[in-house]
Specification:
Helices cover 56% and strands 9% of the residues. By secondary structure, the protein is α/β, with parallel strands linked by helices. The protein folds into three domains: 2-86, SRP54, nucleotide-binding domain (Four Helix Bundle (Hemerythrin (Met), subunit A)); 98-284, Rossmann fold (3-Layer(aba) Sandwich), CATH 3.40.50.300; 325-433, 434 Repressor (Amino-terminal Domain). The protein is elongated, with a radius of gyration of 29 Å. Bound molecules: guanosine-5'-diphosphate and magnesium ion. Residues 104, 106-112, 192, 247-248, 250, 273-276, 280 line the site of guanosine-5'-diphosphate (GDP).
Length: 443
């Protein structure tokens, strides 16, 4: 697996500074193989790896992870981001019914999905109607009706015995029916072919034209692997779609199709299906798919643990130093960096209880990120000796630091004075609450 290969590739270095090109290249090669093994299409792999390498070059080495782990972490974040970051939700029409049209190759799982989607929507309090517009195969209407019955929802179908019928007409009448009988959602099942063909595309795009759906979901079998790109492009150009559903994730496909479709079409993946039963269905989770594609859920867990352990180690050390009054500016900087990793400082503080009180708001307005940038620049401008023992920072040192970090001597004075005050206060608090002495007291 990728995890094993990577652990052999690089020594467990913990450094400072930037990731080296060699580290990044070595890890990128392994990631590339992992992506290809997951059946991601080659052009997509190339683009993705190139972008990730760029990002890794700018990244600072973390104290917690070795370079390989760090590149993997970046790749994973990038992958989760590309796959959609936060899940995109269904778009609902302001005027019901909301119309969802399904498109995709035959056998991709549209009809099955129609039932699952209806079942899921129903569980959320909606009243979905299935509309049978696959009039291509003799059995298709019946299959949808069975699926509908299982899901406990109504199916609108053309009257039997009327010949082949026009799917566009059925779609129109289905939506009319939904409107007049108070269904708030319509799921339009359409015909597919085994391969992409023009007539299929025209029919689907005629249906789309006629009913103006709020969502057109491109349903794609995750097992199709490399073919995902060509199929997705054909549907994008022939019908157009607003979202993607991946099916058959219960199979052994590593899920490369997800990345390929997403990269090529730019459309979000909304749902995932992983079995034939109604409940084998969920909104799409980018993070789970990312670790499936990279085949290294275990490695990601290790990375999280390493980071967690490191943070804990750091904060325990800091707590001990606080308690003894020995906190250095170096520690202070590290703590600050650790907090900043969590996001913009205003957001973090804003999550604290009471953050909306007037007093707290004023305080928050003062700790903006630019202020932190400045503090960081000043501390970086100090020698290690100065950081370790801020008492030695006399007047001439202050001038040098100010010049070196592009701030005024007043700014340096301010930082140093506030640091001493804070250190004193923290030491007192540490004494009161008993941390740094092993156990934290309960009250
Ligand atoms: P359609 O031609 O696009 O309407 O595809 P169907 O819904 O008829 O599905 C084709 C076959 O795939 C059927 O046998 C389904 O039971 C099966 N199928 C659909 N979705 C899934 C899934 O997520 N997992 C598995 N294992 N089978 C599925
Ligand atoms: Mg079908």
């Amino acid at each position: 697996t990728l995890s094993e290969r990577l652990s052999g590739t690089l020594a467990n270095l913990r450094g400072k500074g930037r990731l080296s090109e060699a580290d990044i290249d070595a890890t990128a090669r392994e990631i590339r193989i992992a992506l290809l093994e997951a059946d991601v299409a080659l052009p997509v792999v190339r683009g993705f790896v190139a972008r990730t390498k760029e990002r890794a070059k700018g990244a600072e080495v973390s104290g917690a992870l070795n370079p390989a782990q760090q590149v993997v972490k970046i790749v994973n974040e990038e992958l989760v981001g590309v796959l959609g970051g936060e899940t995109r939700r269904l778009r609902f029409s302001k005027e019901p019914p909301t119309v969802i049209m399904l498109a995709g190759l035959q056998g991709s799982g549209k009809t099955t999905l129609a039932g699952k989607l209806a079942f899921w929507l129903k569980s959320q309090g909606h009243a979905p109607l299935l509309v049978a517009c696959d009039l291509q195969r003799p059995n298709a209407v019946n299959q949808l009706q069975i699926v509908g019955e299982r899901a406990g929802v109504t199916t609108f179908a053309p009257e039997p015995g009327n010949g082949v019928g026009d799917p566009v007409d059925v779609a129109r009448r289905g939506i009319e029916h939904a409107r007049s009988t108070m269904f708030d959602m319509v799921i339009v099942d359409t015909a597919g072919r085994l391969g992409v063909d023009e007539e299929l595309m025209r029919q689907a795009s005629d249906i789309r034209e006629a009913v103006q759906p709020d969502e057109v979901l491109f349903v794609v079998d995750a097992m199709i692997g490399q073919d995902a790109v060509a199929t997705a492009e054909a549907f994008r150009d022939g019908v157009g779609f607003t979202g993607v559903v991946l099916t058959k994730l219960d199979g052994d496909a590593r899920g490369g199709a997800a990345l390929s479709v997403r990269e090529v079409t730019g459309q979000p993946i909304l749902f995932a299906s992983d079995g034939e039963k109604l409940e084998n269905f969920d909104v799409f989770h980018p993070d789970r798919m990312a670790s499936r594609i990279l085949g290294m859920g275990d490695l990601l867990t290790l990375i999280e643990q390493a980071e967690g352990a490191f943070d804990q180690e750091q904060s325990e050390k800091a707590a001990a130093k606080i308690a003894s009054g020995e906190l250095s500016l170096e520690d202070f900087l590290e703590q600050m960096m650790a907090i900043r990793k969590m996001g913009p400082i205003g957001n973090i503080l804003g999550m604290l209880p009471g953050a909306n009180s007037g007093q707290m708001k004023d305080a928050l307005a003062q700790v903006d990120d630019r202020h932190l940038d400045k503090l960081q620049a000043i501390i970086r401008g100090m020698t290690p000796g100065e950081r370790a023992d801020p008492k030695i920072i006399n007047g001439s040192r202050r001038l040098r630091i100010a010049n070196g970090s592009g701030v005024s001597v007043g700014d340096v004075n301010d930082l140093v004075n506030r640091f001493f005050e804070a250190r004193k206060m923290m030491k007192q608090m540490a004494g009161q609450f008993g941390f740094g002495g092993g156990q934290r007291s309960a009250t």
